[in-house]
Write a structure and sequence with these properties.
Strand content: under 5%
Oligomer: single chain
Shape: elongated
Length: about 130
C-alpha cells in the first residue's frame, strides 16, 4: 500500500469512530430517563402520614413501571440477538453481545419491578389503614 492509501484508511476509520461516538451520545440521554429517587429522610417523613403513604405507593408504582419497561427492552434485545450471527468475539471465542447477558438483566429488572410493586401495595394498604 502506498502512503496515500494508508492516510486515507486512517481518516476513514477516524471518521467512522466519530460518527459512532456521536450517535451514542445522542441516544444515551433519551434512555437515561429514570424516575426521581427519594432520600432516606424523605422516605421517613412521607411514611408518617396517610397522604405520604399514598405518595410513596405512587412512587413505587412508577418505579415498577419503569423497571418493567426496561425488562421488556432487554428481552426484546435478547430476542433480536438470538436471530443474529455472533459478529463480535471475545478472547474466549464467544460473542460479547450474547443473549444470556440481556436475558439475565431482563429477569433482574422484572424481579425488581415485582419488588417495587409489592412495596407500592404495602404503602397503599398502610395509607388506608392509617385513615
Amino acid at each position: 500500500m502506498t502512503n496515500t492509501h494508508q492516510i486515507f484508511g486512517r481518516h476513514a476509520t477516524l471518521a467512522a469512530v466519530c460518527v459512532v461516538l456521536l450517535a451514542c451520545t445522542l441516544v444515551v440521554p433519551a434512555v437515561g430517563q429514570t424516575p426521581p429517587s427519594l432520600s432516606k429522610k424523605e422516605l421517613k417523613t412521607l411514611s408518617a402520614t396517610p397522604a405520604g403513604q399514598e405518595r410513596l405507593a405512587a412512587y413505587y408504582r412508577d418505579k415498577a413501571e419503569h423497571l418493567r419497561a426496561k425488562a421488556q427492552e432487554f428481552a426484546a434485545q435478547a430476542d433480536y440477538l438470538a436471530t443474529q450471527p455472533a459478529t463480535i468475539e471475545s478472547k474466549q471465542g464467544i460473542s460479547c453481545n450474547c443473549t444470556s447477558h440481556y436475558r439475565y438483566f431482563s429477569k433482574l429488572y422484572a424481579q425488581e419491578a415485582k419488588g417495587a410493586e409489592t412495596l407500592a401495595a404495602q404503602h397503599d394498604h398502610l395509607s388506608k389503614t392509617k385513615q
